[in-house]
Amino acid sequence: QRCFVCGEMGATITCQEKGCDRSFHLPCASEGECVTQFFGLYRSFCWQHHPKQAVQATPEQNSTCIICLGFVEDKKSYRTVVCPACQHAWFHQSCIHKQAIHAGVCFRCLHCQNKDQFVMEMLTMGIRISKR
């Protein structure tokens, strides 16, 4: 299969949306805004079909990531996620991914300390959590 992100052959991951035949390499996933869910059926989705957060919150002007303190986009997107519990903690996708790897089983919202709802949402959005 040809990777729809880099154009090279050997793509082994295919979007799980019915009727979509986009394939990609795992290293190309982030650049192509693809999501791989590292739980349950380990499903993967292309940029067009990846899950979106159902939370209706939008960041206020000049909102920052509570991990790196850099500005976040003015809307939810592949690169900007919000805690579904408190709806006040905004994160860059790359920042929360690093936090999840380091925190492991202690992973939770850094603002409201919610664990259950937060972890399930992050897993759905493709954030891999270390089990150590």
From TrEMBL:
Record keywords: Ligase, Metal-binding, Zinc, Zinc-finger
Q: What is this protein called?
A: G2E3 ligase
Has keyword Ligase? yes
Quick check: keyword Zinc in the entry? yes
Q: Which GO terms describe its molecular function?
A: ligase activity; zinc ion binding
* RING-type domain residues: 65-113
Q: Which residues form the PHD-type domain?
A: 1-50
Pfam families (UniProt xref): zf-HC5HC2H
Question: What organism is this sequence from?
Answer: Oceanites oceanicus
List the InterPro entries.
EPHD, PHD-type_Zinc_Finger, Zinc_finger_PHD-type_CS, Znf_PHD, Znf_RING, Znf_RING/FYVE/PHD
